[in-house]
Amino acid sequence: MQSGNSVFSRLDVKKYILKKNLKRDLPSSIVVFLVALPLCLGIALASGAPLFAGLVTGIVGGIVVASISGSQLSVSGPAAGLTAIVLAAITQLGTYETFLLAVVLAGGIQLILGLLKGGTIGNYFPSSVIEGMLAAIGLTLILKQFPHALGVDSDFFGDESFFQSDNENTFSAIGNALSHLSLAAIVISGLSILVLIVWPKLKKVSMIPAPLVVVVLGTVLALVFQGTSYSLDAKHLVEIPVVNSFSEFTALFATPNFSAIGDSKVWVVALTIAIVASLETLLSIEAVDKIDPIKRVTPTNRELMAQGAGNMLSGLVGGLPLTSVIVRSSANVNAGGRTKMSAIFHGVWLLLSLLFIPGLINMIPLACLAAILLVTGYKLTRIALFKHMYHKGWDQFVPFVVTIIAVLLTDLLKGVAVGMLVSIFYLLRTNMRNPYFYKIQEEGNKKNIRIKLAEEVSFLNKAAIQVVLTNIPKETNVIIDGSNSRYIDPDVLETIFNYKHNAYTKGIIVSLENIKEQYTVPKLNNKVIEEINR
User: Fold this and answer.
1) Residue 494 burial (CB count, 10 A)
2) Mean pLDDT by groups of 10 residues along the chain of 534 residues
3) Does residue 80 contact residue 43 with C-beta atoms inside 8 Å?
4) pTM of the predicted model, to two decimals?
């Protein structure tokens, strides 16, 4: 009887939490929907895939992945970082249906990675690099959306790479935009930014999401400019496929070509997608957890399995590969989202908009959506963040800045890889400097030197210890104390024993205290292992 009551109480708690957060999740889901819609279409276009494929991917990412995922704020969908891989893969494999098979297989590989606890890789991304990645995404949003805010939509909406599909780069695109201004787009984006700043401060109306007001305002202004010399062209508006009947809707779906499962090229593409998508997801999850106001921690292995299930379904119904996407996720956080219901609802809105109101959606100007992303970008790269990282010291600030510059000049994965290398350099330097505590005592004409080793002494510490031992003066008593050490690397032990063996030639007497001839790597207790594997 008691267990039955506990089940009901848990259900009541879940219902209470859902109801309590619905007033936040519902408005934020609309914001995420408005941000995701043009991104889904733009990424599909840049990938050489049907526009419908981008929307299907967003729907699967919203409804399916969010339902399985343990993350409360992450939003999944087609990723700009995969466009080059997808475009090349479709060309290489010959047909889109064969490419869909690779997407299904990639999802299966991700499921296996999750089961094998591959998500723990995400725990090794340094905080400074994740902060740098977030700031770089913010700056990228500002730089990339600025031309759209001015009415120049030559590249696809959501392009994150430095070198764009229209043969421009991030900076030359801004210069080009300044010479091809659209007054209507400038008015719409300018007023939209003003509304996004002022509206939340008006308490009486703040319950209505500012981005929703911006979209309504932008659509009305676009209609006002229609018929004038400043009217917006179709390329300046959202453009989703118009479906007039259910049969037309079902005809848009594509299915994988399973007869190509023996083709080695399909498996190479699948493995490439699985690895890149998994890395982007883990990076995004780490970043989202960092900006979560409640500071919840996402189980990364479960996330990989959720992404795998999503990619398998996306491939089966004609969609693109999906990942957790930081732009959508950060928009979700900034809009006040609290639980995964925000991501699920955004997937529902994508589906309903495609089925029932495509004509209305196609009236929304890209300029007002660019304004939403400009404000989101600013919130990710505030001046206060740079000050905070600077005060944490050079070992945190340098990798932070390098990551920002590298992401801006390349793309997300390459930039993070460069930041990781710089962070590892500082990690190695720190490890080399802190392997021991050094104390000198003088007794008459002789010096007694006690070298107290750290708890963990790895091979990275070998060089620092060797330098100290080499510089010890002649006629000295040396005590090397390992009483605090749980582990000493074999290379370091060899250095210590060799020094003890040869020190007598300099008149140095070496004593070893609590140093064993061999150490085993310390094992984690079962409770810690269970926490890691969750």
Assistant:
1) 11
2) 55 67 91 90 86 94 96 93 87 94 97 93 85 90 88 66 69 78 94 93 83 92 92 88 81 93 95 93 92 90 96 97 93 92 96 91 91 89 91 92 92 89 84 62 72 82 82 88 88 89 88 89 56 49
3) yes
4) 0.77
